Amino acid sequence: MQTVQPCVTIGSYIWAQDRLPYDEFMLRLDELRAAMDHNGWPAVLVYGDVREHAALAFLTSFIPRVRWSMALLPRTGDARLLCAMSTRDLPAMRTLTWIADVRSGMGPEWEKAFEPWLERFKGDQATKLGTIGFDIMAPVLYAAVRHSLGSRFALQRADDIVAIPARRKRPRELTMMRASCKLLKTAAKTFAESWRGNHEPETAALDAEHVARSLAAQDVRTLVSLDGGRALVPFQGRFEKCPGPLVGYLAVKVLGYWADLFITVDDGSIITAARQTAAALDAIIADMRPGARIGALHAKALDALAPCKLHPVLGGSIGHGIGLSLHEGAEFQASTDATLVEDGVYALQVGAADAKAGNALTSAIVRVAAKGAEVLVRSSE
Amino acid sequence: MDERTSATRPGRLAAATRHLADQALDGLIAASNGLNNFLESNAVYVFSGVRPIGESAVVLDRDGVSTLIVTPAWDEARAAAAASTDRTIGTDDLAATLKSVVGTHRLDLSRTISVGLALLGAAPVERIASALGTLPKAADELARDLARLRTPDELAAAERATWIAERGYERLLEFARPGIREFELVAELYCFMKKLGAEDNFLLLSASQHNLAVRAAGERILDVGDIILSEITPCYRGQFAQICRTTVLGAPRPVIGEKFAILQDAMAEGLYAGRAGATVADVTRAINGVIQKAGYGDYCRPPYMRVRGHGLGITSDRPGDIVDTNTRVLESGMVFVMHPNQYIPESGYLMCGEPVVVTDTGARALSARPAELDVIAV
């Protein structure tokens, strides 16, 4: 789910070398290096910002807390990282990545930061560089990069050639996902218990956020319904009692990896909606296996949900990949022509919105194993 | 429009409409990428009063009629309740909806300006250019210029944000102790201030026996003798306010107090210099002068400090960074944070800063209690 982007991510960030050591990143770079060889790129530029940085984090461990960062990953030689932070902040930035050469790209002359940064590739022959993540780069920044590159370089989208991060989670990534889901489960329990303890939805969400942050979550996002589950809203600061069930959303990020859940607690008014959403989620999970077609899963979910309609906050989707980004890969829409992969991790989300049956949202995070689904975390019922 | 929306925000739409008339323009498209930087202006917020979740735009025509477009579509009801625009539309396709709204407003794009389009990603900008057939001429400074002086409601919100920051700092003094980790302390402060109404918070907090700078919290365990640096920046109804504080766990070495007094003197000089009509450079020189006089002129540059303060988003970041190359003239009603934060070799980095409003007689701190070197007994 999309939520309001905070101005800075305040949680605990480190390069956790015990869990994601240097060799893990060298292994992750293998596929990119093969693409460099195949396409004649001496280097790839990888861009990420504070909101979307999955590829940058996958390859470098670096996550921008504010603004943007860009890595220069050469086929041979040392990598470089440019981040939109002051030189004063660089010592702290260097603790977040295996890349030793971290430089500042901030200040009144930030446009000039790219020139010395790209100096090593100067030569007589025109050169192609691969790019990842440039779709989200602001045009003003892109123009500065282009200006620094001059006519000697051509840029070629690598996003379509090499999938980074890979759809199939690596073993260490699965460990990270499990850690994230474990923390999420604890915080989600607090969310529900706080509401049952007679707190209003915003206080319940804040209690859950507090627990997650105290357990070293890097980022926490919440949404709540103030109208009986018809709509979700970000923090309003109203702290008002609301009649009806608790319907909320909680996402946590642990060492770069996201996990999210819907939290619905029935007050007795949404028995039918809660039952139908649970049945729909069960139906999808039962069919999760490598090669399963997403369109077929979507149809199955909607059949199980009937006569209720899919909740509008889901935008017609019943899930998506999850990991270094809250939304990885294609949305699970009726028309999505894609299949599940083994060791893919997916957020499955089902909801009902019905004037009579009520409004409910439920979800799970599932790893697709060779013979079926491993539920990493699921909304309580 | 609900009670949380500034009653004066329609004034910004009226001011923008007057600007269109003065410049013989047909319309304005203000865009936001949904990111929130506490150092920058969010044009959609300035003109609509809505802090968007995703990419969004405000369309304003020469008659003063306005439409807010937000993504995702499901956010429409919230946005409509808070918006000061005439109409609100939720969509999952900003480019297509923008094309439709531009048509409804019958804008001549050759006489239309844009604010913030350049901040959207390359892909959405390309989609908008394709949908509209062209991109309006950029006037990216307009929102921050029109909003450079806080309205009475905005100043009240900034004062409330300052109040929240000060309560947050009091909570730090109660909660910080040897043995807890930096991120645990930040979790407590962040949620405490959110409970007081802070919808966002640029909260940096770090500790060391000798700090090089402030940074975001990590896993470090607080220890006796640590100097805790905090940059507490809650946002209340779109107004960020920042206080910078230095706190010692246990009895500080005398030199810490001596050096902190230099920062306090620099702050006093800055407040005196920050009157309407002075330039930002004047304020910077007043602050740097004290630090230079104390023998630390070599340290009045990065990485030993960053700036002597800065504007605060998300309405307007004017007057910009408090640096000696900024010749912008201060005006009554401008709000910014003034902070002579400084690395000093004998003490490490120290922090001292307040949100201030410019008046005819000097800059007035919004905080009730100016920064002191605080000590937590252990």
Strands, helices and their partners?
The complex is a heterodimer of chains A (381) and B (378).
Chain A: H1 22-39, E1 43-49, H2 54-60, E2 68-74, E3 80-83, H3 90-93, E4 101-104, H4 114-118, E5 127-132, H5 139-149, E6 153-157, H6 171-196, H7 201-214, E7 219-224, E8 246-254, E9 257-265, H8 271-286, H9 294-305, E10 309-310, E11 319-321, E12 345-354, E13 358-369, E14 372-378
Parallel strand pairs in A: 1-5, 3-4, 5-6
Antiparallel strand pairs in A: 1-2, 2-3, 7-8, 8-9, 10-12, 11-12, 12-13, 13-14
Chain B: H1 9-22, E1 27-32, H2 43-48, E2 56-61, E3 66-70, H3 76-82, E4 87-90, H4 94-104, E5 112-115, H5 122-132, E6 137-138, H6 142-146, H7 152-175, H8 182-195, E7 200-201, E8 204-208, E9 227-232, E10 234-236, E11 239-240, E12 243-249, H9 254-273, H10 280-296, E13 309-311, E14 335-338, E15 342-344, E16 348-350, E17 354-359, E18 362-365, E19 373-376
Parallel strand pairs in B: 1-5, 3-4, 5-6, 12-19
Antiparallel strand pairs in B: 1-2, 2-3, 7-10, 8-9, 9-12, 10-11, 13-14, 14-17, 15-16, 17-18
Helix pairs in contact in B: 4-5, 7-8, 9-10
Distance between the termini of chain B: 50 Å
Question: Span from first to last CA of chain A?
Answer: 20 Å
Rounded average pLDDT of chain A: 93
CATH architecture name of the largest domain in chain A: Alpha-Beta Complex
CATH topology grouping of the largest domain in chain B: Creatine Amidinohydrolase
Strand content of chain B: 15-25%
- Give the helices and strands of chain B as they follow along the chain: HEHEEHEHEHEHHHEEEEEEHHEEEEEEE
Estimated share of beta-strand residues of chain A: 15-25%
Structure in words:
The complex is a heterodimer of chains A (381) and B (378). Chain A is 30% helix and 24% strand. Chain A has helices at residues 22-39, 54-60, 90-93, 114-118, 139-149, 171-196, 201-214, 271-286, 294-305, and strands at residues 43-49, 68-74, 80-83, 101-104, 127-132, 153-157, 219-224, 246-254, 257-265, 309-310, 319-321, 345-354, 358-369, 372-378. Chain A is globular and about 75 Å long. Chain A is α+β, with helices and mostly antiparallel strands. With 378 residues, chain B is α+β, with helices and mostly antiparallel strands. Chain B has two domains: 9-146, Creatinase/prolidase N-terminal domain (Creatine Amidinohydrolase, Chain A, domain 1, 3-Layer(aba) Sandwich), CATH 3.40.350; 152-376, Alpha-Beta Complex (Creatine Amidinohydrolase). Chain B is 34% helix and 21% strand. Chain B contains ten helices and 19 strands. Chain B has helices at residues 9-22, 43-48, 76-82, 94-104, 122-132, 142-146, 152-175, 182-195, 254-273, 280-296, and strands spanning 27-32, 56-61, 66-70, 87-90, 112-115, 137-138, 200-201, 204-208, 227-232, 234-236, 239-240, 243-249, 309-311, 335-338, 342-344, 348-350, 354-359, 362-365, 373-376. In chain B, the strands form five sheets. A six-stranded mixed β-sheet of chain B has the order 4-3-2-1-5-6, with helices on both faces. A four-stranded mixed β-sheet of chain B has the order 8-9-12-19, sandwiched between helices. In chain B, a hairpin with a 2-residue loop joins strand 17 and strand 18 (362-365). In chain B, helix 4 runs parallel beside helix 5 (122-132), helix 7 crosses helix 8 and helix 9 (254-273) packs antiparallel against helix 10. Mean pLDDT of chain B is 95; it is low at 1-8. Chains A and B meet through helix 3, helix 5 and helix 7 of A and helix 5, helix 8 and strand 7 of B.
